[in-house]
From TrEMBL:
InterPro entries: Aerotolerance_reg_N, Double_TM_dom. PANTHER family: BLL2463 PROTEIN. The chain crosses the membrane at residues 6-23, 54-78, 488-509. Keywords: Membrane, Transmembrane, Transmembrane helix. The keyword Lipid biosynthesis does not apply. Residues 6-70 form the Aerotolerance regulator N-terminal domain. This is Aerotolerance regulator N-terminal domain-containing protein.
Length: 512
């Protein structure tokens, strides 16, 4: 399959040669009843000889090209065509990134938490490897009909495997309770679960029954602030058996800069944050988690942006930020349902802009935007116009996975059994069914949903297909090959084999 493109040119020569030789042999072996027939046969053979000279010349030219390829292409790279360009695809899943990180490839940072900014910067024009199967991408690709490409089936399906689906948590005073959701495919089995909490490791044997399991872990005396949890299942077959989770105890402080107190915004944020309303930018300090609402048009956003650890959520009708014109689209900054932030978009990500300072502006088809800075993502309610913006056309598979893991409060990935409450115009299910004027909706099927609320469209992914849980480990040999370290597919041997076939064809053509 890898060499298919290189077979086309030799076949255009080899097949005509074989047809020609068989036809010439047939004419030579025909009996001649008369002298006139013998003269006619010799005339045909002379024409064959002229055609042979052309084939012989083309064969020798092709032999030279193939010999050069044998020396130049030591191994043939694994490439796919994406929007007219030769590109590869790199999966955003933490399980794959964690395993690649073990082999010293730069995909995770020193804390063991995936650094997506660094990864996408490094591989956006390079390689993307998926541990998902081709079939599981079809439904999401239908949402963005412009993107027609496939994901390689790098991993094999296994009949028996464990997969960690999620890590939920709650606090009882200073005690942290972890609820680790594990799916078991195959008969029941006792497994060793390794847990690392802020670098402190401990083990626990757990009995996993077929189907969904919830393992409860208690960690005492947890202080306020960020905490890192890493769970690992000891198993020969791996799919997401390394699961990272960032936990925050306490309420994070958000500075809100506004001309007047934003009552709705404060009320919405108090569920998760400790919002502080200010109206003087001089009260900001570097590292503040900043939201700007209804600010004056003459406010210096360039000055304020130096203090943002997150991103601007809402601004006035229009203002300048350096040479970027920011225009107001809607007065709200998206919307909140069930204490979750949702991106409003009609299709998966179709454009990405990059501005100075490492910030990214993700622009959606319906005009909505989201800006990614480090690990924070926020929905914005403004559009951007600037000739200085750099346009990137590459497509990030499974946008919900990228968003979910980049900023833990912005979720598009739900579980079966979850519900959503609100005034929804229409909800479309993965099975093609449509429900009108819904107040409450239960997600009882896996797949990708579209939820229409007013003029907004929410793209929601519910669970992942069962096939995605049962895949064998991506070994070091394939990882090395993917990153171009070994000759996984021997290009030299392949082209020498083609050269040998052409050499045989040359000798057959030289025989008169």
């Amino acid at each position: 399959m890898i060499y298919r493109i290189f077979l086309y040119f030799p076949l255009f020569i080899i097949i005509p040669i074989l047809i020609h030789l068989l036809s010439r042999r047939k004419i030579k072996n025909e009996p001649f009843p008369s002298l006139l027939f013998l003269i006619e046969r010799e005339r045909k053979l002379r024409n064959y000889i002229k055609f042979e000279e052309i084939l012989l010349f083309l064969t020798r030219c092709l032999m030279i090209i193939v010999l050069a390829l044998a020396g130049g292409l030591v191994f043939i790279p694994f490439k796919f065509i994406l929007k007219g360009e030769m590109k590869k695809i790199y999966d955003t899943s933490l399980s794959t990134m964690g395993r690649i990180g073990k082999y010293k490839y730069e995909t995770v940072n020193i804390n063991g938490i995936a650094d997506f900014e660094k990864t996408f910067e490094k591989y956006k024009y390079g390689i993307i490897v998926s541990d998902m199967q081709e079939i599981n991408f079809r439904s999401i690709l239908k949402k963005g009909k412009r993107y027609r490409y496939f994901i390689p089936e790098i991993l094999d399906i296994s009949e028996e495997n464990n997969s960690m689906r999620d890590i939920l948590y709650s606090f009882d005073g200073n005690n942290l309770k972890l609820y680790i959701k594990i799916n078991r495919t195959g008969k029941s089995k006792n497994e060793l679960l390794k847990i690392s909490f802020d670098g402190n490791e401990f083990n626990k044997f757990v009995e996993l029954r077929e189907g969904d399991n919830i393992v409860e872990i208690m960690i005492k005396d947890v202080k306020d602030g960020y905490h890192r949890v890493l769970c690992n299942l000891k198993d020969d077959l791996i799919f997401d058996n390394e699961f990272y989770k960032v936990i925050y105890k306490g309420k994070r402080e958000i500075k809100i800069l506004s001309d007047e107190e934003p009552v709705f915004l404060l009320k919405a944020l108090k569920m998760r944050y400790n919002p502080v309303w200010i109206n003087n930018p001089d009260n900001l300090k570097k590292g503040d988690f900043l939201i700007i609402e209804n600010v004056k048009k003459n406010l210096n956003l360039d000055y304020i942006s130096r203090f943002c650890s997150s991103i601007i959520v809402s601004v006035n009708d229009s203002m300048m930020m350096k040479d970027i014109l920011i225009k107001k689209v809607k007065p709200e900054f998206g919307f909140i349902e069930d204490d979750r932030f949702f991106i409003s978009t009609e299709e998966p990500l179709i454009k990405e802009y990059e501005i100075k300072g490492g910030e990214r502006i993700l622009n959606f088809k319906d005009g909505k935007s989201a800006i990614v800075r480090k690990n924070n993502v926020f929905l914005t309610s403004f559009s951007l116009e600037s000739k200085e913006l750099v346009y990137h056309s590459y497509y990030i598979p499974f946008l919900y996975s990228f968003i979910e893991r980049s900023f833990t409060d912005l979720l598009l990935n739900l579980e079966t059994g979850d519900s959503i409450i609100g005034d929804f115009k229409r909800i479309e299910t993965p099975q093609g069914m449509s429900y009108e004027n819904i107040k409450i909706f239960h997600f009882d099927k896996i797949g990708f949903y579209r939820i229409f609320k007013g003029n907004d469209t929410i793209f929601v992914a519910v669970n992942i297909n069962k096939e995605e849980r049962n895949m064998k480990i991506l070994g070091k040999d394939k990882i090395d090959y993917i990153f171009g370290k070994i000759k996984f597919y021997d290009g030299t041997g392949f082209f020498l084999f083609i050269f040998l076939i052409l050499l045989i064809c040359e000798k057959l053509l030289e025989r008169r």
